[in-house]
Design brief:
Blueprint lengths: L1 H16 L5 E2 L1 E3 L10 E5 L5 E8 L6 E14 L2 E16 L14 H9 L11 E11 L13 E9 L2 E14 L2 E11 L13 H4 L1 E14 L1
Parallel strand pairs: 1-10
Antiparallel strand pairs: 2-9, 3-5, 3-11, 4-5, 4-11, 5-6, 6-7, 7-8, 8-9, 9-10, 10-11
């Protein structure tokens, strides 16, 4: 039993100390939204993906899936200047590979979808979407390390989850072309910055879930 306990602790610590594959977003209070300017491009929802990954404590048992996103970007003189995105949380889908019923008391990915949409988490009956409004886009400072390959911009925006808005900033690769643009980014947010908890504060059920949530964006917008 002692050997098993030591092994379990070792696995826990290894997962907790493993290198992150995404950048940690910096947060601030709500900021003024960037004004639209230049040409407006619409997100191609079918060609765009928003992936999420959440974990149990120590990075164990990751749960992952997708949500659909719509919205627009503004481009002026070959640069991204503003944008407004909406993710439909009712479209949230957990990848079946992320949930093994044999390891989760018979629960499936569909069960997790329903739980995440319930009042325990997103409460989609009252708050059906997550919104992101760009507040600033600037060149990524020279020498800035990023887990997003080819990152060239620092994107900041107001992210609204349920009834709370927090400004987040993260590196991104922004490519503007004649016929549209593409934005790629991998960053981590802390769900508790938005008060997104399971049960009341200090509830053991919430403690077992990591505060970190990884988001991976691959957004395509067209004229």
């Amino acid at each position: 039993m002692k050997k098993l306990s030591i092994l379990a602790l070792s696995v826990f610590m290894l997962a907790a100390c493993s290198e992150s594959k995404s950048d940690t977003a910096t947060v601030a209070g709500e900021q003024a939204v960037a004004a639209q300017a230049g040409e407006t491009l619409s997100i191609d929802s079918a060609a765009s993906t928003v992936k999420w990954t959440a974990y149990h404590k120590g990075g164990l048992n990751p749960r992952f899936g997708t949500t659909s996103t719509s919205g627009t970007f503004s481009v002026q003189d070959g640069n991204l200047v503003s944008g407004s995105l909406v993710s439909d949380i009712n479209s949230l889908t957990t990848d079946p590979a992320a949930v093994d019923p044999a390891m989760s008391d018979g629960k499936t990915s569909a069960d997790l979808d329903a739980h995440l949409k319930s009042a325990d988490f997103f409460d989609t009956e009252k708050y059906p979407s997550v919104k992101f409004d760009i507040t600033k886009v600037e060149d990524l400072p020279a020498g800035t390390a990023s887990k997003t390959e080819g990152a060239n911009k620092l994107v900041s925006g107001n992210m609204t989850i349920k009834d709370k808005t927090v400004n987040v900033s993260f590196p991104a690769k922004v490519d503007v072309a004649v016929d549209g643009l593409n934005i790629v980014s991998k960053f981590t947010i802390n769900r508790q910055d938005w008060g997104l908890t399971y049960g009341t504060e200090g509830d053991p059920k919430d403690w077992m879930i990591s505060q970190d949530v990884d988001l991976e964006l691959n957004l395509t917008a067209r004229k």
